[in-house]
Write a structure and sequence with these properties.
The protein has 162 residues and is mainly alpha-helical. It has helices at residues 7-33, 37-43, 56-78, 85-103, 107-129, 133-160. α4 (85-103) packs antiparallel against α5 (107-129).
Length: 162
């Protein structure tokens, strides 16, 4: 009996690592593109219901883990398939938001981006639904947080125009 993992197990683990790497890359684009997000966030006029800046890091860490696992679960069933196109689109839209909102101060354009992100998550959910119910449910917290973040983006943009 061999102590080495089977080719199927190695492929599965390699796939999971690819999805984790994609989620980490998405997060790093925001982190590396803009270094003073916490300070900028604190300096903006915000609605009374805005969360403290320290909350975003832990929330996004959990969400990126769920996103990666969700994509991996579908990939395990379909391989590189059309089901993963909306998944890739939502990662790109997610990565673009922080540079738009904080890096360039384009809060209105960031609002358009997050609205498109929300739609891309919906598209991902629809495409994943027939492949893995667990993958769909793993995206629900992300979709809900994106809904909240879009409302916060709209409020901050409105309060800080002009």
């Amino acid at each position: 009996m061999s102590t080495l993992a089977s080719p199927t197990t190695r492929r599965s683990v390699s796939g999971l690592l690819m999805f984790v790497a994609a989620a980490v890359a998405t997060a790093l684009i925001g982190v590396l593109a803009v270094t003073d997000t916490a300070e900028q966030y604190k300096s903006l006029d915000q609605p009374s219901w805005a969360p403290p800046s320290w909350l975003f890091g832990p929330v996004w860490t959990v969400l990126y883990a769920l996103i990666a696992i969700s994509g991996w679960l579908v990939w395990r069933r379909t391989g590189w398939s059309a089901e993963l196109v909306p998944f890739a689109v939502q990662l790109v839209l997610n990565a673009v938001w922080t540079p738009l909102f904080f890096g360039f101060g384009l809060r209105g354009l960031a609002l358009i981006d997050i609205a498109l992100l929300w739609l891309a998550i919906a598209w991902t959910v629809v495409r994943f639904r027939g492949r893995s119910g667990v993958a769909v449910w793993l995206l629900v917290p992300y979709w809900l947080w994106t809904t909240f973040a879009a409302a916060l983006n709209a409020a901050v943009w409105s309060l800080n125009r002009g």
